[in-house]
Amino acid sequence: MTTQLDCSIGLKKETTYGTPVTVDQFLEFESESLNRTAEFAQGEGMRVGSRIPLANRNFLGREQVDGDINLVATTKALGGILEAAFGTVTNTPVPTQAGVFQQVHTPATTDPLPSYTIQKGVPPVGGGATVPLTFAGMMCNQIQFSADPGGLLQIGTTWTGREVLLTGTPYAAPSYPAGLDVFSFVHGAIVLGGTVTAATADALASGGTVLGNIRSFSLQWNQGLDDNVPTLGAQGRRSRRNVVGRGELSGSITAEFTDTSLLTAQMNRSNLALLLTFTHTSTIGTSANPVVQIHVPVVKLDNALPQSNGGDVIATQIPFVGLQPDAGPAIRVVYRTTDLTP
Predict the structure, then answer these.
(1) Are 82 and 101 in contact (CB under 8 A)?
(2) Could you tell me if residue 41 is inside a domain?
(3) Is residue 13 situated within a structural domain?
(4) Residue 197 lies in a domain
(5) Other CB atoms within 10 Å distance of the CB of residue 219
(6) For a tag site, which of 84, 85, 92, 139 has the least CB within 10 Å?
(7) Stated pTM of the model
(8) Is residue 251 in a domain?
(9) How far apart are CA 87 and CA 13, in angstroms?
(10) pLDDT digits 0-9 by tens, 199-223
(11) Host domain of residue 75
């Protein structure tokens, strides 16, 4: 028997695009909007005695599935989502920390990106058996990280895929890793400017100018996946993986106006290094901690002058754009965890 709280989402990387596999990684998601989008072609030929289009002239023209999955950053089982969103990952044991691994996720520079099967388990009203909706050929086009005071490190993802199947793929009962915890705003620290040493395969990024006046942040990476129409013979569905296009890296910070350093950087269009590090207080290995670290080597702050605030503390939301450095990736996301694989 089920309740309306028993909706589940699981995923697994596909071997062949659009061929469903049995999902085995399950998410503690907060919300989702996975849905089917279909376009239909209608014959409009006029016929004596008929005032509206004929039913047998209506056909499926195009079908795809898309939607969002939103969750909180966790100390385990996050690597699969990060790999889907960026496409390239290394996984290396951390020296002297038995059982601790460091994943470094960067944007893929070659096609194809991996595709995934996502299965959504939907409990019917009345407590019946969960109904599986299996989404095949799913690819992650966008990921967003954000945190606000008193909140958790939020991750939003946007997906696009080939089709949804109602039958043929049995429901995979969820299982979740033991000892899973979440990252929060209080675990975070931000660096903006100065000289940052990039992460290696097994060492975290370090250095730069630590700021203590940032109230919130958001950062978004968009893969720029293509959305071209299906080809002949594909029954209105996509027949291949989406290919990568020009990516977009952007975000914003909300900063209290404590000095003119950020204002000067805006006016001068300065290159600044951005480093966000969330370090959980639990211990893994001998003396390590679970970590999510986001490093953007070059950001430029867009114009946002401080405004009076009726006598309250002046804080400004400052948008920024991330750009490609001369060498290395435009963004690295490091994930330290006890997971053996992403």
Answers:
(1) no
(2) no
(3) yes
(4) yes
(5) 23
(6) 92
(7) 0.95
(8) yes
(9) 11
(10) 999 999 999 999 999 999 999 999 9
(11) 8-36+68-235+242-337
Q: Which amino acid is at 100?
A: V
Q: What is the dihedral of CA 50, 54, 55, 60, to 10 degrees?
A: -160
Percent of residues, the chain, with pLDDT higher than 70: 100
Q: Which residue has the tokens 């409009």?
A: 44
DSSP for 192-210, written as a single string: ESS-EEPP-SSS--EES-E
* DSSP class per residue in 219-265: EEEE-----PPPPTTSTTS--SPPPP---EEEEEEEEE-SSSHHHHH
Task: Work out how many domains the chain is built from and give that number.
Answer: 1
Q: Please give the span between the terminal C-alpha atoms of the chain, in angstroms, as a whole number.
A: 32
Could you give the maximum distance between any two Cα atoms of the chain, in Å?
83
Q: What is the pLDDT of residues 34-52, one digit of tens each?
A: 999 988 899 999 999 899 9
Instruction: Collect all residues with Cβ–Cβ distance below 8 Å to 85 and sequence separation of at least 6.
Output: 105, 140, 142, 143, 157, 221, 223
C-alpha 200/C-alpha 196 separation (Å) is 12
Q: Which residues of 61-100 are buried (b: 16+ CB within 10 A; e: fewer)?
A: ebbbbbbbbbbbbbbbbbbbbbbbbbbebebeebeebeeb
pLDDT at 60: 87
Residue 312 is encoded by which pair of tokens? 């309250």
Rounded average pLDDT over 12-33: 97
- Cβ contacts of 117 within 8 Å, gap of 6 or more: 11, 12, 14, 20, 21, 22, 23, 134, 135, 136, 138, 169
Residues linked to residue 196 through DSSP beta bridges, in sequence order: 207
Contact between residue 75 and residue 183 where contact means Cβ atoms under 8 Å apart:
yes
